[in-house]
Amino acid sequence: MHDEFTPLLGSTDWNAEWKELQKLRRHADDAAFWDKRSATFTTKDAPNLYVEKFLEYAAIRPGETVFDMGCGTGALAVPLGAAGHKVVAADFSQGMLDQMRARLDEAGIRTVFLKLMSWEDDWTSFGVRAGMTDVALASRSIATADLRDALLRLTEVARRRVCITLATGSSPRVDEHILAAVGLPSALGRDYLYAFNILAGEGIKAEVRYISSTREDTFATPEGAYEKLAAMIDDSSAVQATDAERERARANLREWLGANLVPNEHAGKPDCKGVAQGAWRLAEPRTVTWAFLAWNTDGTV
Question: Do the beta carbons of residue 192 and residue 171 sit within 8 Å?
Answer without folding.
Answer: no
